[in-house]
Amino acid sequence: MRYWPSLLLAALLAIFPAASRAERFPSKPIRLIVPFPAGGPADTIGRLVADKMTASLGQPVVIDNRGGAGGAVGTAAIAKAEPDGYTIGISTAGALAISPSLQDRLAYNPLKDLQPLTLAARVPELLVVARDVPVANLGELIAYAKANPGKLNFASSGPGSMPHLAGELLKRHAGIDIVHLPYRGASPAVNDLIGGHVHMMFMDVAVLLPHVQAGAAKAMAVGSKERIAVLPDLPTTAELGLPKVEADNWYGMIAPPGMPKDVLDKLHRAIVAALQAADVKAKLAELGAIPGGNTSEAFAAYLESEVQKWAEVVKTAGIKN
């Protein structure tokens, strides 16, 4: 009987260490790595989340911008960090789902070397054509392209970018012959579209919306699952008979693998609460972004499906980085 107190103590210590650790976490600042320079969409979303997490967790969440290699440098730093909850990050569809098929020596495997936390936001890709292209809708565009094979071109922000792959999806599933024109960034591509030197393109809705509203470009479709609030009358590609032409430029919250579940859960709750805050939703809407906030498991499944999807597009189109 004299052993019962010590046995009971041991049992209690085995049951409650996780709860004790969760109550203590965080006890120091958290670093949030953004794998791009300050000022871009990933940085903006990361800072919105960080500010809300700072308030809810009671410790500073500090942004660490680590640009390079299209987000691969900073994403690799997240993968290699200590899995104690004090280093998390935000990354993109490009760095997480597309780069694995384009870069032979990527320093991380997004499906093995990272812990998905939640999808932060989705930015639908908008398909537009220049004003002088003689079409009024997607059906007419496809018919015109088929009647003029190889004569229409589509611009992108660079080889292997989301706008490029979205164009390849359209080319494949609509059965049209259009020529890819890669640019070094979105701005010069859009400028040439407005100037009439480019016929069409996919691009983030926030980038193209002002030009559509000004009548400088004609919107054909939204390449996402649902219509967007800023252009409620514009149908999706699925509604127009092309359900496989779907491209969202998304952003996801991630962490190193092996993090204790109680710490992961606490971070997940704080991030989701941040994304669901009314002022954060309003600011995301200004970026043309749809807030996320799904479970870690759902985001992991989504990430896996995106890796497989874009690997097939890269292979079929013969895209080289």
How would you describe this structure to a colleague?
- The protein has 321 residues and is α/β, with parallel strands linked by helices.
- The protein folds into two domains: 30-122 and 248-317, D-Maltodextrin-Binding Protein, domain 2; 124-222, D-Maltodextrin-Binding Protein, domain 2 (3-Layer(aba) Sandwich), CATH 3.40.190.
- Helices cover 45% and strands 20% of the residues.
- It contains twelve helices and ten strands.
- It has helices at 4-15, 17-24, 41-57, 72-80, 93-102, 138-147, 162-174, 186-194, 205-213, 261-276, 278-286, 296-317, and strands spanning 30-34, 61-65, 87-92, 115-130, 152-156, 178-182, 200-204, 217-222, 248-255, 290-291.
- Strands 1, 2, 3, 4, 5, 6, 7, 8, 9 and 10 form a ten-stranded mixed β-sheet that branches.
- α7 links the parallel β5 and β6.
- α3 crosses α10 and α5 (93-102) crosses α12 (296-317).
Q: What overall form do the CA principal axes indicate?
A: elongated
For the termini, the CA-CA separation is: 71 Å
Low-confidence stretches: none
Radius of gyration: 22 Å
What's the total number of strands?
Answer: 10
Descriptive terms for the model:
2 domains, D-Maltodextrin-Binding Protein, domain 2, alpha/beta, 321 residues
